[in-house]
Design goal:
The complex is a heterodimer of chains A (about 130) and B (about 600).
Chain A: H1 2-58, H2 61-70, H3 72-75, H4 118-131
Chain B: H1 10-18, H2 23-73, E1 95-96, E2 102-114, H3 122-132, H4 138-146, E3 152-158, H5 160-169, E4 174-183, H6 191-194, E5 196-202, E6 207-213, H7 214-218, H8 220-224, E7 233-234, H9 239-255, E8 260-267, E9 273-279, H10 319-328, E10 337-339, E11 344-346, E12 349-351, E13 362-364, H11 365-370, H12 374-384, H13 386-395, H14 422-429, H15 438-449, E14 453-454, E15 469-470, H16 474-490, E16 504-513, E17 519-532, E18 539-546, H17 564-578, H18 590-597
Parallel strand pairs in B: 1-7
Antiparallel strand pairs in B: 1-2, 2-3, 2-4, 5-6, 8-9, 8-18, 10-13, 11-12, 14-15, 16-17, 17-18
Helix pairs in contact in B: 3-4, 3-5, 9-17, 10-12, 10-16, 12-14
Classes of the chains: A mainly alpha (about 130), B alpha+beta (about 600).
Chain lengths: ~130, ~600
């Protein structure tokens, strides 16, 4: 029994050593990766700050004013004026949609006889429909 | 383990008894031996424990010592396996306006230095460098390369193109070090607020960036705090408003042939400075050197911040303070008639009105402000008396430097006469004799606009209305605003009317004092202190022009009503919509038009 135990222990030690060896190298590789990534993050951050600075530089009010002047023909941009404010009441209501005609009815006869109002017209159409036995 | 010896071994006892000896002696002897053995054992165990403890302590301190020695001897490095975001993002925090638009940021560039001892061709390199950088002198550079020193700084910041050109020289003695520099992408915009930067302690791998003026210096500790490096400093300045104000101020200075000018725009509820401009201005990216010549006035330098450092006699703009205080004390009401018979004789002094007018003999308090009567204000000030007048002006912050977050602010102390006889009471009531900066005036007018509560001006963005101290009742503030509104509708500031925004304000035209004493006849400081909309003021606008003159008419006009007021009106017309203030306009009813279109 005892020799078996010895052999097993020995094998376990070898296995653990192998595992520790691999873990060591895996850790070192991860650290290298992290260092690389952090370098990349630093580079990207720097690039970001340069781009933010450039964005601010390109959007400086002097330049925008000049561009608005140069492109006045196309854009027609003018400084904001008090007269450009409006109220909600000034916005027109949307035009009511006319419902789709679902069951058109052919009307044959003298139209001038039914020209009074829309209501009359509807009544007449209904009456005509009834006459036709629909 | 040794055999335990019995205390009374029978053999010895019997033997002792046979010899007639006392057997108890044997027992005692054995007992003593046993105790001796026990003592020995305890002693050695204690000694062993103490030894172990000593070794443990020794190992412990040795570990600490080795670790400390290691830390002291090794180069510092960032922890690699830490979570992202823990490292310092920037050496110096950005500065942004109230909407997050960048006013100041950092950029990485290269600094150029030389190791002359490893240079291949010092003479040729010096000439080539001088060709790249016009400000360098080839002869001086060559001398410095060859006089035996081993290290020279050549330039602090280089553009990528310049770095490439230096690379093309190809001398191994020319080396680059990374440099974080400060960049103000908007150029001259808000230059006096921002100030400028310089390099502090310099090394090959990095250099300190320190603020040299303005908010960069005043908030230096905050901007350099590594814990807040990623968080920009948000100012109360609005970039768009600031740009508009600077554009209009520049145009006004050209049109009116002025020496300079200052504009302050302040939110009356929170005390935030929305815009602050001073002209002439400068580029903080390339800060000019201060003037050093003896006879040069500080205000001649573009670095001079007229809005904060310019301490002027602000003229008639002060009149409303005397009137407001008299109303607060119950001495007068807006309809009270006061003596305004000009000229007024006080001792050896003669107090006159503008261009020798006489608005008297009696004038209502409202008309004193509307017509800007010096004599009327003088009589009101005499009712108040010097002590109460000083206390009131002090409560409006006119006696102390402004608490603004600029390094220049604490130095700009108002000029207060040391003694305060009644003649000073009279002159101060209409803004002569004591001097204050436009920023002081803005804060004091903001108190009237804010319903009588004085709020400290600030350049940092606030989250809401600030707490302040009440300096006058709400009723008095309202009456004062009505008078200021009258100044624009019927008085000296009629050009200040902006349809829809109910501008209220007071003009001030002060003759410039001569250095030798007395006043110039044809040099004035014109100020217009305005607030809008008068019924519920949100903003105070101060426009100050130095030596303006309107030459559009047959006679040159130098009063504020013709110079500062139209400038302020144009600013309000342009700025108010940007700030989202809706005009109270009667617009043509467009709904009828739309209905007809349908």
């Amino acid at each position: 029994m005892r020799p078996v135990l010895y052999v097993l222990t020995f094998l376990a030690v070898i296995a653990l050593g192998f595992w520790a060896y691999r873990e060591n190298y895996a850790t070192q590789a991860s650290l290298r990766d992290v260092r690389h990534l952090q370098g990349e993050i630093a580079n990207l951050r720097e690039a970001l700050s340069v781009q933010r600075a450039e964005w601010a530089y390109l959007n400086r009010p002097d330049r925008l004013r000049e561009l608005a002047g140069l492109n006045f023909d196309r854009l027609g941009l003018l400084p904001m004026e008090p007269g450009q404010f409006g109220t909600a009441a000034q916005v027109a209501y949307p035009v009511p949609e006319i419902p789709a005609i679902i069951g058109p009815v052919d009307v044959i006869g003298d139209i001038s006889a039914v020209e009074d109002t829309a209501a009359d017209q509807a009544e007449t159409i209904a009456a005509q429909a009834a006459e036709q036995g629909l | 383990m040794t055999m335990r010896t019995p205390l009374r071994p029978l053999a010895r006892i019997l033997k002792a008894r046979a010899h007639g000896e006392n057997p108890d002696l044997i027992e005692r002897e054995n007992l003593a031996r046993r105790h001796e053995a026990m003592r020995e054992r305890t002693h050695s165990r204690a000694a062993a424990r103490l030894g172990l403890l000593a070794v443990a302590f020794g190992a412990f301190y040795l570990t600490i010592g080795i670790r400390m020695g290691h830390l002291a001897a090794s180069e510092p490095s960032e922890p690699v396996a830490s979570a992202p975001g823990a490292e310092i993002v920037a050496q110096r925090a950005d500065i942004t306006d109230r909407n997050g638009r960048i006013l100041a940021t950092n950029m990485t560039t290269q600094a150029l230095y030389a190791h002359p001892k490893v240079m291949v061709d010092p003479k040729g390199s010096a000439q080539k460098l001088a060709a790249i950088f016009p400000e360098l002198d080839a002869a001086v550079l060559e001398r410095r390369f060859t006089d035996g020193r081993s290290f020279i700084w050549i330039r602090k910041v280089l553009s990528p193109e310049q770095v490439q050109l230096v690379h093309e020289i190809g001398d191994p003695g020319l080396l680059f070090g990374p440099r974080e520099m400060r960049l103000y992408p908007n150029g001259t915009l808000a230059a006096h607020v921002l100030g400028g930067y310089a390099f502090g302690a310099e090394g090959v791998h990095s250099a300190e960036v320190i603020g040299t003026a303005g908010i960069e210096k005043a908030m230096d500790a905050r901007l350099r705090d590594p814990a807040q490096g990623g968080e920009p400093l948000t100012l109360s300045i609005d970039l768009t408003v600031q740009a508009t104000v600077e554009e209009l101020l520049g145009a006004a200075i050209t049109a009116l042939n002025a020496k300079g000018g200052a504009v302050i725009m302040m939110d009356v509820r929170s005390g935030e400075i929305i815009a602050m401009a001073s002209a002439p201005t400068f580029d903080p990216n390339d800060r000019p050197v201060p003037l050093v010549s003896k006879d040069a006035e500080a205000s001649d330098s573009p670095l001079f911040n007229r809005a904060v450092q310019g301490v002027y006699e602000l003229g008639s703009t002060f009149k409303i303070f005397a009137v407001a205080q008299a109303m607060e004390l119950g001495l007068v009401n807006p309809q009270t008639m006061v003596d305004a018979n000009a000229p007024m004789i006080w001792g050896k002094h003669k107090i006159k009105e503008f261009e020798g007018h006489n608005y008297g003999p009696l004038l209502s308090v409202t008309d004193v402000i509307t017509k800007s009567s010096n004599v009327g204000t003088a009589h009101i000030a005499l009712m108040i008396g010097p002590l109460r007048q000083q206390a009131f002006l002090k409560s409006l912050g006119l006696f102390d430097p402004t608490p603004l977050e600029l390094i220049e602010a604490p130095g700009a102390k108002p000029l207060i006469p040391r003694k305060w006889p009644e003649i000073v009471t009279i002159t101060t009531s209409y803004g002569h004799g004591m001097s204050a900066s436009p920023m002081h005036l803005a804060a004091a007018y903001a108190a009237i606009a804010n319903g009588g509560i004085y709020v400290k001006p600030t350049l940092l963005k606030q989250s809401g209305p600030a707490r302040g101290t009440r300096v006058m009742s709400e009723e008095v503030a309202r009456e004062s605003r009505k008078m200021l509104r009258r100044v624009v509708t019927d008085g000296t500031a009629s050009l200040g009317e902006v349809p829809g925004y109910e501008v209220a304000g007071k003009t001030g035209t002060a003759d410039k004092p001569k250095k030798s004493g007395g006043y110039y006849k044809d040099k004035v400081i014109n100020t217009f202190a305005a607030m809008f909309p008068a019924s519920d003021p949100r903003y105070v606008l101060i426009v100050t022009l130095d030596e303006p003159v309107d030459t559009s008419g047959p006679k040159p006009k130098r009063t504020a009503g013709w110079t500062s007021v139209p400038v302020a009106a144009e600013m309000i017309r342009r700025i108010a919509p940007i700030l989202g203030l809706r005009p109270q306009l009667e617009l043509p009813d467009r709904s009828t038009l739309t209905a007809a279109g349908n």
